[in-house]
Amino acid sequence: MSQERRLRILVAKPGLDGHDRGARVIARALRDAGFEVIYTGCHQTPEQIVQTAIQEDVDLIGLSILSGAHNYSFPRIMELLKENGADDITVIGGGIFPLEDIPRLKEIGIKEIFTPGSKLEDIVKWIRENVKPRKMDAA
Amino acid sequence: MSVVEQVLKGDVRAVARLLRDIDDQVPSTRSILQQLYPHTGNAYVIGITGPPGAGKSTLVDQMTAYYRKQGKTVAILAVDPTSPFSGGAILGDRIRMQRHFLDKDVFIRSLATRGHFGGITKSTHDMITVLDAMGKDIIMIETVGVGQGEVEIAECAHTTLVVTVPGLGDDIQAIKAGIMEIGNIFVVNKADREGAKKTVQELRNLLEMGKKFRMETGAGKNGWDPPVVETQAHKGIGVDTLCGEIEKHREYLTAQAPEELEQIMLKRALHQFSATLKDELFKEVIKRMEGKGLKLEDVAKKIMAKEIDPYSLSRTLIKEEFKEDA
Ligand code: B12
Ligand SMILES: Nc1nc2c(ncn2[C@@H]2O[C@H](COP(=O)(O)OP(=O)(O)O)[C@@H](O)[C@H]2O)c(=O)[nH]1
Ligand SMILES: [Mg+2]
User: Fold this and answer.
1) What pLDDT is stored for residue B268 in this prediction?
2) Is B115 within 8 Å of chain A by CB?
3) What is the mean pLDDT of the segment spanning B56-82?
4) A135, HSE (Cβ side, Cα atoms, 13 Å)
5) Beta partners for A95?
6) Does ligand 2 have an atom closer than 6 angstroms to the CB of B143?
7) In this predicted structure, what is the pLDDT of residue B172?
8) Out of B24, B86, B102, whose CB is closest to A31?
9) Is any Cβ of chain A less than 8 angstroms from the Cβ of B2?
10) What is the pTM of this model?
11) Which ipTM score applies to this complex?
């Protein structure tokens, strides 16, 4: 009789980027879509993001970054997830990305990148289709 | 290694996953909790409640720093409301606790109420069991309390803090109506704001009235008098005093009034037992009912159509199902 699991999502902002409007908009949209969103605010180090993802047992990490520093923080986060045996967590990104950076980020395992103008319903739809909550019986 | 062994060793990933399973009511968690239960009883549980924005998370962050300096390990359960419209939630308490994210001896978990009334979640008691068994010295539980019956926190905690701020005016009334009874310590946070002294005085007056009542009825003559502490959580001012008062309350419970401590533990045990029993009984009866081809949905439809009433149906089911076992 156990109900469906609810999807848990960490929305985090790595680095010294203070643009938090997008992250807040996303957090609200994901809440309104019925997900549980953990929002940790700005200025997170890759280490903090990974520790939070583990302690909160999230299914998805959504990184929001508009500062241009993704080429450092994103690979580091992927590396740390692997080191901690937590690379089953899906990672996506959003914000400002030069087009040429996107293939490289996907190569290291970032599943999708959402740039300015992305529609909220498309983001929600992508998550519903691509991220499933961790299996019930896999304790 | 089994989940139980991992938890007892303090494995963060195992604990994090188990807490999720408990929250999602995965059946296998029952036997794990059963095995963890004997390893509990060492943690000191502190409840922190008050209106949104009062500074609870900031206080929890400061108190965590205080306890870490003493070498104590800390776990935090931060509860925020689930949106009744979508079933989703934004859990933002961690924003104030960033400096502890990399401390291996601090475990933080954000929780959504998921429609449970009473301020905490249905899973909170069981989560405390896990965090206690993993060896945390201090467990803090932050909940939103605006005086609408969010009193369950007091059933989880040894010491309950009720946090308010100056200048809310009617807020004192709200506290009086709802959560005055559960506070062991009252905190006036944002004491840097105008009206702090007035708020402190109002609280003290209310507490004095409560005390008079206690004396007249003879209940708890030498009882605990809840202190009122002023804090400025964003600057860490007053936090030492607050933690000192918590320590005094702890000493009071252990040395002066062991019967009160026993009452707290008794209430908790009773709550845990009755909640689990209700849950298991419900599941068992529904399982047997569905085994006979009666779907819960169809039963609900019949009740809706007034073909049957919920009262006699419940009684009949219980009588029938447990006849031979009784
Ligand atoms: C508003 C704004 C600010 C505000 C920020 C207010 C705030 N609290 O957020 C202020 C004025 C403070 C500001 C300051 C600065 N800014 Co500014 N700012 C902008 C601006 C105009 C809009 C950003 C915004 O809020 N958009 C609205 C939100 C809703 O959109 P969004 O964040 O893009 O999010 C969408 C998608 O990207 C995606 N998304 C975003 N995050 C996530 C996360 C997930 C999980 C998902 C799924 C999707 C997703 O979904 C959203 C919906 O479509 C942009 C230009 C632009 N057009 O983007 C510049 C811009 C980002 N800023 C820029 C700069 C340089 C700065 C400053 C350094 C300026 C300076 N020299 O001082 C400072 C730095 C501030 C800091 N501490 O980091 C540059 C960055 C350049 C770069 N990356 O190479 C930009 C691109 C302007 C430019 N063209 O030069 N800025
Ligand atoms: N002026 C002032 N602001 C404070 C104080 N304590 C916390 N705050 C701020 O109040 C806001 C809400 O704090 P938070 O801890 O999130 O409140 P919560 O909703 O009760 O958990 C934050 O912006 C804090 O920085 C204080 O003592 N004085
Ligand atoms: Mg809070």
Assistant:
1) 84
2) no
3) 97
4) 4
5) A65
6) no
7) 62
8) B86
9) no
10) 0.93
11) 0.94
| Residues in chain A closer than 8 A to B88 (CB atoms) | 6, 30-37
Residue to substitute from B24, B35, B105, B108, interface A, most A β-carbons within 10 A: B24
- Inform me whether the pLDDT recorded for A74 exceeds 50: yes
| % chain B with pLDDT above 90 | 58
User: Position B321: which residue type?
Assistant: E
Chain A residues with CB under 8 Å of B22 CB are none
Is the predicted pLDDT of residue B282 greater than 90, yes or no? no
Q: A139 lies in a domain?
A: no
**Upper half-sphere CA count for residue B70 (Cβ side, 13 Å):** 14
Task: Tally C-beta pairs within 8 A across A and B.
Answer: 107
Of the candidates A63, A56, A77, the residue with the CA atom closest to the CA atom of residue A20: A63
A31 touches chain B (CB under 8 A): yes
For chain B, domains (ranges, CATH) are: 33-256 (3.40.50.300), 275-325 (no CATH)
The tokens of B51 are what? Answer: 């209106």
Q: Which tens digits make up the pLDDT trace of A5-46?
A: 899 999 999 999 999 999 999 999 999 999 999 999 999 999
Q: Any idea what the Cα angle at residue A95 is, between residues A91 and A99, rounded to 5°? A: 90
Predicted confidence (pLDDT) at residue B325 exceeds the cutoff of 70? no
Q: Which residues contact B249 (CB under 8 A, 6 or more apart)?
A: B158, B159, B184, B185, B224
Are B101 and A56 in contact (CB < 8 Å)?
Answer: no
Among A102-111, B22-31, B41-50, B124-133, the minimum mean pLDDT is found in B22-31
What mean pLDDT is predicted for residues B260-282?
86
Domain count, chain A: 1
Measured between beta carbons, which residues in chain A are less than 8 angstroms from residue B95?
Answer: 39-41
CATH code of the domain containing A49 = 3.40.50.280
User: Nearest C-alpha to atom 57 of ligand 1 is from which residue?
Assistant: A116
Q: Return the half-sphere exposure (C-beta side, CA atoms, 13 A cut-off) of residue A58.
A: 28
Give domain status of residue A12, yes or no. Answer: yes
Q: Whose CA is nearest to atom 44 of ligand 1?
A: A94
The DSSP secondary-structure symbol of A79 reads H
Distance CA A32, CA A28 (A): 6
CA separation for the pair B29, B24 (Å, rounded)? 10
Q: What pLDDT score does A139 carry?
A: 42
Residue A81 lies in a domain: yes
Look up the domain containing A65 and give its range: 8-130
- A137 inside domain: no
Mean pLDDT value of segment B164-175: 71
Top pLDDT among B146 and B221 is at: B146
